[in-house]
Structure prediction request, 461 residues.
Amino acid sequence: MERFFILNMVKTLATKGSKKLLNAWAFYDWANSVYTLTIASSIFPIYYSALFSSPDELVSAFGFEMKQTVLISIITAFTFLMVAVLSPILSGIADYIGNKKNFMKFFCYLGGTGCIGLYWFSLEHIHLSLLFYFMGLIGYWGSLVFYNSYLPDIAFEDQQDRISARGFSLGYIGSVLLLLLNLAMVMKPEWFGFDIGSTEEQNNLAKLKAMKVSFITVGVWWILFSQYTFYVLPKGISNGHRVTRNVLLNGFRELQLVWRQLKQNLRLKRYLGAFFVFSMAVQTIMLMAVYFGEKEIAWATDSEKTSGLIISILVIQLVAVFGAIVTSRASEKFGNISTLITVNAIWLCLCFYAYFMITPMQFYVAAGLVGLVMGGIQALARSTYSKFLPETEDTTSYFSFYDVAEKIGIVIGMVLFAIVDQISTMRYAILFLFLFFLVGILLLLRVPRKKAPLYKEASEN
Prediction:
């Protein structure tokens, strides 16, 4: 029995830097990225908009009437605020007892269940429907708190850029495969056994049914494919401690400790400031891009709009695979910070371009450019932070700080976007975000160019 236990442990655990461990970690991107593509970015926004009789119809929720997009912006901002508050508590507990994998599992299963629950999303039961939306969103981002914190545990510094990019690439490929299936379901519902009739209204009802079923496929995919990651990843570094009441505040104490340590690490401190600013704009655009396309682009018909929006998301995902790889290679040649500055400059230009977009073709061009810089900035931002960390075994606390900064930034970005959208239009809201990229570039220029593996000697002067 003892021999079997030892053999099973050897089989399950993999050493740091090993191909098995790196691939298992990256494979979680394959599992969970279907949420960001189908739920956050494509089919759910289209389904949500289709529930209303006109783009200008207001929605009633929590005793208020507001624009459709404003409601989603507010719920999204609230969810990220919850993640920002909960992640220090949960990561503190996970670090204290040395079992962050179980917390990662919890959020994975919560998010997958929320996706499945979106099958019953309706305006008649708007509050319950928003609860399922909340579960999916908090499950995705909550699991990332622990997923990201594994990066310095499973990969050596010279591996982190590439394995981070590999994770995002796997996520794009896996999510595109499922989206292609979901796209076929929506565009050809009769192929999958959905009843269609002779009228356009009956066909639209069949497409809506297919969209609802696609939400179930996302939840099942997410939960199913995450099992390999959970099988291989270690539990964490166990301290042999038990949870007490004081541990609930331990995460915030650790964040305070990280903040004090940041004062002694100028490069990491300034990088986090820049990341906080540009990340809020990137995430806001990614979360609201399809809503913008649905409301502001002059589509000829509803059918063209549905297919056009999904195709644009596919373009983003496919180009993003290439973009993540190119950005990773560029960081090796020119340095992480210089590459991030260039990518932010492209995002800044995209904000101006989006303000003038009208036709579907212009939207497709924007989708290609967004894809080029979307995957690159996410993967490079994560790996740059990981490589700037001091020598420590407490990676969970540092990545909790990283995630809290990101989530608070998203809350601010989404709230500002909702305010501008409510008082004017989404075009002005998108244009407003260029300021964040501009400030992000200025802050990145202030990050010290000290000697480090990710910098070239020539860039130190």
Remarks:
- The longest strand covers residues 59-61.
- The chain has one domain: 19-236+245-460.
- The first helix runs from residue 2 to 12.
- The two ends are 62 Å apart (CA to CA).
